[in-house]
């Protein structure tokens, strides 16, 4: 239900306010629209406009995958029932944390099992094994986007849905003036790598946040492209080369310098540098001191978790869905044919801040749309960029162009390690 003057409801499916009579009139006029070319487009447009929720929003954000369960009970059936319930509860908690900032995690709702089940759209089971009393599997849960949004909004908890493009991480470790990147040992790099290995444990879940990160494999090609000194120096040519190899737009150099306090406690001075188009060099810096009885390796592991969480929080803060603020922008989308237009439509449907679109004009080489969005114009531009769409202004007119989609981290002889 939409209340006048209140927050607007985020639609779950692609919407169009185009009136059929207006479209038919435009086609019949034969002036700016070309029926032989547009007939399949118009048919497909209306078919896609009636598509289900599954194709209309960023459902991957609401999917929590590969949750390992290992339960022993009196019978295999009882073990499976308990495992599914435990997995569902863990997935629900992880999803809410994925969407929200850490400062709000203490306010997240704690629901009973039956209540959580009402938010589950469906689930999948992989690697299922069982004995007479034990059940093991990897579970994947898809949650209902609309219901999750209402749950958070009803409790006045801000949240974000836009997923960033992957970032390539280069962990550089500095001790007594010596720096290392690919060297073995590099405990700072190992701390980042251990986050992938820990996912094999039944108690620790490998789950993507809103900022996927890639850890370079450190093979001979990586070593030949860039070393620790050049990474710290910020050699743009070398950094661009390693980014190109892993097919990412942004490379992050995480410099950790080990020192100690006056009382001999280990201290890590962290400097985060980001390189890429429209990226500021130094993102932030901080110091983390070892806790009582905490060794250097444990400190490095805790720091890697903290830095990643801080990067996630920064991204979410910039992309919080501001339902009380809405905007409208009229854009022109150049197209080369039916396939181009369908691709654009799919990408637009995945942008969380877009509330709905209005088709204004279809022609042989362009589409004109009115885009209704939530939040600020800069948020819309940033969200479109994550879908490889660039919004620019040319002579007073807004133009949105498609960029070739890139499968980040996909390359020959490189292992993609993501969290």
Number of strands: 15
> Given the C-alpha coordinates, what overall shape results?
globular
Distance between the termini: 38 Å
Q: Unreliable stretches, pLDDT < 50, 5 or more residues?
A: 1-35, 42-59, 197-207, 412-419
Radius of gyration computed on alpha carbons = 24 Å
Number of helical runs?
Answer: 12
Helix content: 25-40%
SSE-based structural type:
alpha+beta
In percent, how much strand structure appears in the residues? 25-35%
Characterize the biggest β-sheet: 7 strands, mixed
Give the averaged pLDDT, no decimals.
Answer: 82
How would you characterize this protein structure?
It is a single chain. The protein has 419 residues and is α+β, with helices and mostly antiparallel strands. Helix content is 34%, strand content 28%. The chain is built from twelve helices and 15 strands. The protein has helices spanning 20-29, 35-49, 76-99, 113-117, 145-154, 187-197, 220-225, 228-233, 236-246, 296-318, 338-349, 377-386; strands spanning 63-72, 120-130, 134-143, 167-175, 178-180, 213-215, 250-260, 266-276, 282-289, 326-334, 354-362, 366-374, 389-394, 397-402, 417-418. Strands 4, 5, 6, 7, 8, 9 and 15 form a seven-stranded mixed β-sheet that branches. Strands 11-12-10-14-13 form a five-stranded mixed β-sheet. Helix 6 crosses helix 10. The longest helix has 24 residues, at 76-99. The protein is globular and about 70 Å long. 30% of the residues are buried. Residues 1-35, 42-59, 197-207 and 412-419 have low confidence and may be disordered.
């Amino acid at each position: 239900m939409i209340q006048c003057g209140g927050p607007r409801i985020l639609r779950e499916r692609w919407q169009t306010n185009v009136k059929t009579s207006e479209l038919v009139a435009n086609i019949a006029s034969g002036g700016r629209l070309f029926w032989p070319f547009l007939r399949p487009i118009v048919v497909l447009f209306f078919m896609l406009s009636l598509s289900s929720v599954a194709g209309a929003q960023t459902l991957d954000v609401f999917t929590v995958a590969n949750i390992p369960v290992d339960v022993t009970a009196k019978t295999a059936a009882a073990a499976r029932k308990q495992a599914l319930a435990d997995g569902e509860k863990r997935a629900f908690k992880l999803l809410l944390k994925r969407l929200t900032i850490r400062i709000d995690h203490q306010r997240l709702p704690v629901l009973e099992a039956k209540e959580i089940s009402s938010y589950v759209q469906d689930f999948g089971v992989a690697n299922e094994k069982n004995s007479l009393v034990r059940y093991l599997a990897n579970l994947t849960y898809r949650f209902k986007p609309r219901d999750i949004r209402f749950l958070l909004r009803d409790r006045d908890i801000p949240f974000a849905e836009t997923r960033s493009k992957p970032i390539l991480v280069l962990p550089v470790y500095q001790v007594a003036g010596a720096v290392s990147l690919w060297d073995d040992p590099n405990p700072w790099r190992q701390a980042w790598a251990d986050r992938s290995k820990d996912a094999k444990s039944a108690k620790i879940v490998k789950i993507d946040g809103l900022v996927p990160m890639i850890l370079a494999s450190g093979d001979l090609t990586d070593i030949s492209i860039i070393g620790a000194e050049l990474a710290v120096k910020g050699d743009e040519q070398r950094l661009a080369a390693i980014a190109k190899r892993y097919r990412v737009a942004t490379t992050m150099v995480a410099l950790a310098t080990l020192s100690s306090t006056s009382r001999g406690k280990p201290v890590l001075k962290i400097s985060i540098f980001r390189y890429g188009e429209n990226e500021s060099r130094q993102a932030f810096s901080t110091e983390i001191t070892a806790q009582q009885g905490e060794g250097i390796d444990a400190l490095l592991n805790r720091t890697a978790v903290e830095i990643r969480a801080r990067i996630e929080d920064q991204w979410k803060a910039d992309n919080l869905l501001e339902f009380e603020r809405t905007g409208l922008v009229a854009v022109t989308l150049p197209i080369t044919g039916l396939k181009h237009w369908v691709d654009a439509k799919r990408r637009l449907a995945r942008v969380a801040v877009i509330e709905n679109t209005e088709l204004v004009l279809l022609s042989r080489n362009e589409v004109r749309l009115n885009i209704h969005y939530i939040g600020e114009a800069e948020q819309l531009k940033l969200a479109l960029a994550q879908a490889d769409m660039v919004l620019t202004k040319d002579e007073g007119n807004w133009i949105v162009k498609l960029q070739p989609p890139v499968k980040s981290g996909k390359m020959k002889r490189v292992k993609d390690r993501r969290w």
